[in-house]
């Protein structure tokens, strides 16, 4: 069990649910024209299964990465960071493959239940669309490193992370509640997506040397470490700016800018990356950036809610 928990890489899970939290609380604090109260738009069932599905996708991605990099030999003595399960021999490739299949099935089942709670027997078109989206997410999580045409080995991993852990996570879950897309929500969706890409980019910066030797042609390998730093700064700084623009356009009061506290660890992270001369020493920054993104999502959602005590009382007394 210890080795399976390590293979699931629990430190990546808070980052994966950041978008779900933002999209869900935005639905709670911004009822639509057709749905006038928070208790009508928000559903604990949707929230719970959205979290469960997203966590399933993240664990599936971690298992698949362990398997794909392990069987390809990418995880070797040159790799920085904790040893992965297949690399260390703690879990066999056959056992990991079975775990990938089981996790895929459970995640798809969770997605189906989530879609049912969101749309019921109505909106058949929406149900089919989100089902296909869920299947695509599962396939993408696996194909990142698994197979001869794994897109993570061709530098497309950043796109997957941005789309599924940013746009789909925030806008998709919000649509499950509101049945419409609020254009303003695109700003935090892009922000969460960029920060998530930043975590992947940091991982690739750390592993640049070993990835180049093993033929894993990430964006960092393609552009080189110096340009990867500039790319990293642009991801984080753009994300920070977009959230501020979101707050301004949302007419936030002064006390609703509490989310700026999350910019303190983000700024410290950028300074550390700027001063870094040895990519191998960036490993601790992965956890820091992931947790900073999670902190930003929590603070932002708190700032989204006005009259928070009344809303919470309504949810517990009259919510579904």
UniProtKB/TrEMBL annotation:
GO terms, molecular function: 1,4-dihydroxy-2-naphthoate polyprenyltransferase activity
Membrane topology of this protein: Multi-pass membrane protein
BP term (GO), one: vitamin K biosynthetic process
Subcellular location: Cell membrane; Membrane
GO cellular component: plasma membrane
Enzyme Commission number(s) of this protein: 2.5.1.74
Transmembrane segments annotated in the record for this chain: 12-29, 41-60, 99-119, 125-146, 158-178, 184-203, 230-250, 294-317
Keywords: Cell membrane, Membrane, Menaquinone biosynthesis, Transferase, Transmembrane, Transmembrane helix
Main EC class the enzyme belongs to: transferase
Record field: catalytic activity: an all-trans-polyprenyl diphosphate + 1,4-dihydroxy-2-naphthoate + H(+) = a 2-demethylmenaquinol + CO2 + diphosphate
Pathway entry: Quinol/quinone metabolism; menaquinone biosynthesis; menaquinol from 1,4-dihydroxy-2-naphthoate: step 1/2
Record-linked InterPro entries: MenA (IPR004657), UbiA_prenyltransferase (IPR000537), UbiA_sf (IPR044878), UBIAD1 (IPR026046)
A Pfam family this chain is assigned to: UbiA
Family designation: Belongs to the MenA family. Type 1 subfamily.
PANTHER family: 1,4-DIHYDROXY-2-NAPHTHOATE OCTAPRENYLTRANSFERASE (PTHR13929), UBIA PRENYLTRANSFERASE DOMAIN-CONTAINING PROTEIN 1 (PTHR13929:SF0)
Biological role: Conversion of 1,4-dihydroxy-2-naphthoate (DHNA) to demethylmenaquinone (DMK).
HAMAP family the record matches: MenA_1 (MF_01937)
Listed name of the protein: 1,4-dihydroxy-2-naphthoate octaprenyltransferase
Source species of the chain: Flavobacterium reichenbachii
């Amino acid at each position: 069990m210890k080795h399976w928990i390590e293979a699931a890489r629990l430190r990546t899970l808070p980052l994966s649910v950041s978008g779900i939290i933002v999209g869900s609380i935005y639905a709670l604090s911004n009822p639509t024209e057709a749905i006038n109260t928070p208790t009508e738009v928000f559903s604990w069932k949707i929230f719970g299964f959205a979290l469960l599905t997203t966590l399933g996708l993240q664990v599936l991605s971690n298992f698949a990465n362990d398997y794909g990099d392990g069987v390809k030999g990418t995880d070797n003595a040159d790799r920085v960071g904790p040893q992965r399960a297949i690399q260390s021999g703690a879990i066999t490739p056959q056992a990991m493959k079975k775990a990938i299949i089981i996790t895929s099935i459970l995640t798809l089942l969770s997605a189906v239940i989530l879609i049912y709670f969101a749309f019921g027997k109505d909106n058949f078109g929406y149900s089919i669309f989100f089902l296909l989206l869920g299947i695509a997410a599962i396939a993408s999580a696996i194909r990142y490193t698994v197979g001869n045409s794994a897109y993570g080995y061709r530098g497309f991993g950043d796109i997957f992370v941005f789309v599924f852990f940013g746009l789909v996570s925030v806008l998709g879950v919000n649509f499950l509640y509101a049945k419409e897309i609020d254009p303003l929500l695109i700003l935090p969706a892009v922000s969460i997506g960029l920060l998530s890409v930043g975590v992947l980019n940091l991982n690739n910066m750390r592993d640049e040397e070993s990835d180049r030797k093993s033929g894993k042609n990430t964006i960092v390998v393609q552009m080189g470490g110096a340009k990867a730093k500039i790319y990293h700064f642009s991801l984080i700084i753009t994300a920070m700016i977009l959230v501020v623009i979101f707050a301004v356009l949302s007419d936030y009061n002064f006390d609703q800018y509490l989310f700026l506290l999350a910019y303190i660890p983000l700024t410290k992270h950028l300074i550390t990356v700027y001063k870094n001369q040895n990519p191998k020493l960036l490993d601790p920054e992965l956890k820091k950036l992931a947790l900073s993104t999670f902190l930003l999502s929590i603070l932002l959602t708190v700032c989204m809610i006005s009259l928070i005590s009344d809303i919470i009382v309504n949810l517990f007394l009259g919510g579904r």
